Amino acid sequence: MLRLCEANKGFYVKAGQFISSMRRIPKEYSVTLSSLQDQAIPFHFEAIKKVIINNLHKEFSELFLSFDEQPVAAASIAQVHHALLKDKQEVAIKVFPDYRFDWAVSEFEKTIAMELDFVQEAKNSERTAKNFEKKKFIRVPCVYWDLTTKQVLTMQFCDGHKVDDVEYLKEIGINPAKVAKALVELFAEMIFVHGFLHGDPHPDSHKIQDLGEKFGVGKYSRYFPVIFMGRTIDSKSAIGREMSLEEKSKLKHELKLLKMDDISSFMESLPTDFLAILRADGHLRSIISKLGAPQHVRLLSYAKYAVYGLTVEPNTQSDYTISGMYEV
């Protein structure tokens, strides 16, 4: 599977990345495919160089004092190179080659098109910097707009480590659990305050049903608590506690009655924004689990920012926020 993703690149790598981040797949799969997160096989430098020249309309010698041909990171549909501009400013250049995806279904094509537009990503980055300008623990690299196009993104170069690098965090004396809490609160604020979802944190099954009707998923809304909280809709256990054996048995029986058509109908009925949030939530679960923090930290942060989100004006400029920001 790893060789298949590496050979086909692009969207195959993206699929492999998603699988590797899921919590409930065998460890052998997640560990093997995790190399795709930022160590995918890079594109040849000549292809990257051609894209930069064609987009910025200048030769390399006019743009850079130096340019590292080996990428700092190579992911699914883009790779990042370290470079020095003529004024000796250290930058990170993110580039993706030409892709054709006429074969893709319309909604998937729309989502991928957003991720293949670095101008949109740059705008999202600046918007995030403004949204979190009062948060001292968040640093957003500035954008070099004169060196940015849909295919080339140039930003301030910032040294750093992956957020789930537990060994490094412990080595420099940072508590991984505190990092998990900060990360979850960051995403909770984006979703419930800056973004497009305002939720009601109370465990009221009638309100969940009403929300399901608004989303167009009807009877399937009873599975929202399972997706986000790991509990059934009728659960009386405290947040963060596992389901009782009785709950597990009842849920298992219900799920056996579902058909593939039911699952497809459920996913197709959800708003596309909600699907992006589901993906983000899945990644967050995986990361905070690796950092050793309990899952109720995530749930309590969601509840806290959902309540706060109800007290502020909705952000009407929420297009692409979650999907775009998740890639930045």
From TrEMBL:
| Pfam families xref list | ABC1 (PF03109)
The protein's matches in InterPro entries, at most eight in alphabetical order, are given as:
ABC1_dom (IPR004147), Kinase-like_dom_sf (IPR011009), Mito_struct-func_regulator (IPR051130)
Q: Which residues form the ABC1 atypical kinase-like domain?
A: 95-203
Write down the superkingdom of origin. Eukaryota
Q: State the protein's name.
A: ABC1 atypical kinase-like domain-containing protein
Record organism: Acorus gramineus (Dwarf sweet flag)
